[in-house]
């Protein structure tokens, strides 16, 4: 009733429409503008640190550097964007073959100029052929909507790739959804699986904040499980099971478990044993597993085990035991060696779901019509690169190896820096694009941070940005054990200058508060 | 407590992890798979007719035609996709200049081959120059994430376009968000503005089902206002105000009003007077206006008035009265003459919102990282085509005019067909890409439909598809006055064959039930 009274006080009923020449139609008391109170409070509660306050400040500084004379007062000449895994913003070049194909898809008229373009070496003929095949799958134009699940021919290519990756365990195009990056897949799954406030979603801590943000938007309950920093950010299954049982005791239904492998922000790679234990939890409690496997190509140390492959081997070994496991595996063109973040390509594979669930996801996807077609084509190119003997093979293979090696070198270089720094402890990078060092702050620094109304890790990242232009994200944005402090940084930036600057900053900053 | 007991019955606590060589870790009772009951019920409730049961059946038939011998038994050789405004799926060609630019953006190496490519006439030099400018705005690669609001330089171009469109009323790049089509913009706005179950969203009936689907997902309350079919689907402001007041009396807060102009599915164009009355409602009740103006270029009859231009003129004429009006205007590269549905480009302009609201939208956008960069570039190309004197101007202008004329001719041709058909009544098309004829069904047909568990319009569309391959959408998917029946069809398909087939089907079908 309150609402009615409030409105009754500010408005009076008379028809807005009479005749246009009648000035009374403009004779009303205007209402006020909406404020934050009028909004969906879950949006206000959600946080996405990767684009949070430090990155926003970095954007301001970058704007100053580009446009303003006052930039003379800044201690640096450019921003080092280490807050986000965005390889092509730094110096990573796109793969030539992929870009040739997409370029032709955008302007198929080039196919009619094949003689000139191939003889001059501007395009390779196998790029022309791949573009023709893809155009045929797509139906002639990247400017038309595809089916909401994605272009069928591309889903077939993805299914073949997964089958080969998982030692012949068959994947079906019907279970593949082409999505705008992995973010969109995560959003579909959580929107669907979060039934109400009592739905629990297990997330690793630290985690990629897309998950906390999306769970908050869905108004579901976060069930954090902590990774073991000391043993390379491995999972602790006993602890996970305790989280599940505590949730049940609290009348929260643990429905979904997010697993990020290789880890973001941790850079770890899960062992096969860890994955088996996670699948056991899924099987025993009927918890849907979301395997965020977008960094599956970014492995420097150890081996990537896809959750599906491990599941299939368990299903063979223990007949009947694992038949009800439901798994969604996410992949993306943004990471790996393609690094095509801005092109918004990705896929998810659904494993073990009832068909009615697949249909519900399809309906959700249909409301967004379809994912961008060139992003879908890039998925095809990611999983089906030129093969030995193909004209583009050598260059493509060289570029892929080179990117992989470069990433590995940069990871090691930054890791070595952190090993040298006083008060910094870092796990050895095994995969992904990030390091997540632990910072042992002096007490005076902690006190000063609190005085300035910041968490100590935020205080450090803030000072690092203002002193050097290096933009990182405080560990608090990803979650960390109470009383510990971290930061996430990508290792993607080239050169030694930025790591040198970081070293100097760190030593000065720590000695100031020692 | 029920949940706890249920789980206690099916699971027993023992640590899943002991040692891997211990078979007890696989010794648990597996849980069951999830079912529809376990899902977010709003997803199940949501409906998106444009990709609903008739289009799904059309997909099956198309699959049969392509892959199956049983297609011999079908009465047609291809599906006519008239269910969705997807011009390039039919025979509309993309604009050459736009595609040349995007092709270069995808493979900037082409810029180094300028001499060959321009001298052979493969690319125009102004396409090369535009690509260089855009690459500079974008920061060098379409494969990098942009800021979540979109590339600044492109937002500047959009702001300049709006300023010119609205007779010099200034637009600012800070108020422009680049989005994946208009669907994503609608989704951001409704997710944010739908606070709770008591939030009311006014939607026209008939409406584009993206809105009903999204409102259902947001768990808000739909407040339908009916358009006047008899007077060319105009708005009735008295009725709208009654809807607002009835909602308030019901303790529902009318917070948002969706206006689709030119109309989808109606094909109508709102008069300036209608728009003034709508703005009055927004001003008087503090209702946020969402102006879906994606068909602003698709005008065949009458004139398009942007809601912002009308608002600005009211603000000048009645100082202080309209200052609190809050408006979001949506546009897209999917429609107009570019028709680039699969490229997922679009923008929204925010007018009159407090900065805190803009920040909240930005946070929501940041969780999706950014919209696809080539889609952003296409927005630039849509609003800033080649100018008189530019090398590409003549061809581009010819193509644009040609597409516009073709669409107009097809609209008229289909309208003329409907005028001839018995029991069909259709408003004259003024804009957009659709006709929404009213079907006066014989009573025997209505009875037969009900016997077959279908609404009569669904029954008709179903029979039309099975007999001719023409895929349309029943009016019930868009909303219609009780006891009336319609269907939505695009007029995009080329040739006369399909309209002839429709005519024959209609006459036969109606005479069967006469």
From TrEMBL, chains A, B:
UniProt KW keywords: Aminotransferase, Pyridoxal phosphate, Transferase
Gene3D superfamilies: 1.10.287.1970, Aspartate Aminotransferase, domain 1 (3.90.1150.10), Type I PLP-dependent aspartate aminotransferase-like (Major domain) (3.40.640.10)
GO molecular function, one term: pyridoxal phosphate binding
Cofactors: pyridoxal 5'-phosphate
Pfam families: Aminotran_1_2
Gene Ontology BP, a term: L-alanine catabolic process
InterPro entries noted in UniProt: ALAT1/2-like, Aminotransferase_I/II_large, PyrdxlP-dep_Trfase, PyrdxlP-dep_Trfase_major, PyrdxlP-dep_Trfase_small
Ranges in a coiled coil: none
CDD domains: AAT_like (cd00609)
Domain Aminotransferase class I/classII large span(s) in chain numbering: 133-494
Domain of life: Eukaryota
Assigned protein family: Belongs to the class-I pyridoxal-phosphate-dependent aminotransferase family. Alanine aminotransferase subfamily.
Subunit-level organization: Homodimer.
PANTHER family, per database record: ALANINE AMINOTRANSFERASE (PTHR11751), ALANINE TRANSAMINASE (PTHR11751:SF29)
The protein's name in its UniProt record: Glutamate pyruvate transaminase
The organism of origin for this protein: Kazachstania africana (strain ATCC 22294 / BCRC 22015 / CBS 2517 / CECT 1963 / NBRC 1671 / NRRL Y-8276)
Taxonomic path: Eukaryota, Fungi, Dikarya, Ascomycota, Saccharomycotina
């Amino acid at each position: 009733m309150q609402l009615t009274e409030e409105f009754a006080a500010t408005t009076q009923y008379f028809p807005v429409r009479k005749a246009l020449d009648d000035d009374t139609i403009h004779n009303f008391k205007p209402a006020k503008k909406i404020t934050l109170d009028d909004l969906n409070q879950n949006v206000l509660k959600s946080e996405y640190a990767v684009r949070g306050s430090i990155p926003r400040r970095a954007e301001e500084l970058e704007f100053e550097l580009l446009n303003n004379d006052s930039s003379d007062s800044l201690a640096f000449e450019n921003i080092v964007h280490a807050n986000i895994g965005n390889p092509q913003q730094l110096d990573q070049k796109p793969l030539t073959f992929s870009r040739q194909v997409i370029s032709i898809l955008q302007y198929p008229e080039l196919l009619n100029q094949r003689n000139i373009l191939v003889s001059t070496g501007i395009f390779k003929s196998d790029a022309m052929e791949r573009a023709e095949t893809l155009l045929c799958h797509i139906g002639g134009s990247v400017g038309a909507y595809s089916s909401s699940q994605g272009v069928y021919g591309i889903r077939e290519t993805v299914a073949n790739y997964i089958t080969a990756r998982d030692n012949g365990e068959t994947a079906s195009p019907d279970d593949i959804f082409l999505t705008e990056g992995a973010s969109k897949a995560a959003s579909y799954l959580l929107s669907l699986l979060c039934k109400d406030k009592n739905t629990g979603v297990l997330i690793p801590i630290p985690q990629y904040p897309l998950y906390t943000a999306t769970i908050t938007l869905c108004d579901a309950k976060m069930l954090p499980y902590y990774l073991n920093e000391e043993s390379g950010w491995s999972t602790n299954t006993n602890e996970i099971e305790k989280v599940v049982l505590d949730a049940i005791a609290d009348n929260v239904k643990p429905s979904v478990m997010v697993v990020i492998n290789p880890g973001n922000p941790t850079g770890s790679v899960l062992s096969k044993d860890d994955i088996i234990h996670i699948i056991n939890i899924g099987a025993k409690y009927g918890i849907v597993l979301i395997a965020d496997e977008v960094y599956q190509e970014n492995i420097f140390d150890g081996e990537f085990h896809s959750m599906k492959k491990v599941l299939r081997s368990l299903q063979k070994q223990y007949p009947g035991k694992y038949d009800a496991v439901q798994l969604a595996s996410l992949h993306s063109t943004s990471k790996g060696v393609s690094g095509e973040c801005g092109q918004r390509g990705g896929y998810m594979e659904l494993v073990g779901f009832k068909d009615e669930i697949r249909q519900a996801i399809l309906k959700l996807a249909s409301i967004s019509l379809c994912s961008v077609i060139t992003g879908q084509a890039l998925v095809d190119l990611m999983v089906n690169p030129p093969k030995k003997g193909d004209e583009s093979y050598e260059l493509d293979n060289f570029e892929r190896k080179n990117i992989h090696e470069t990433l590995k070198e940069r990871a090691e270089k930054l890791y070595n820096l952190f090993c040298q720094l006083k008060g910094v402890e870092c796990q050895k990078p095994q995969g992904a694009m990030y390091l997540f060092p632990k910072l042992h702050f002096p007490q005076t620094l902690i006190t000063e941070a609190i005085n300035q109304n910041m968490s100590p890790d935020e205080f450090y990242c803030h000072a690092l940005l203002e002193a050097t232009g290096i933009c990182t994200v405080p560990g608090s944005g990803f979650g960390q054990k109470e009383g510990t402090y971290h930061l996430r940084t990508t290792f993607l930036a080239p050169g030694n200058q930025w790591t040198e600057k970081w070293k100097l900053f760190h030593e000065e900053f720590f000695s100031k508060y020692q």
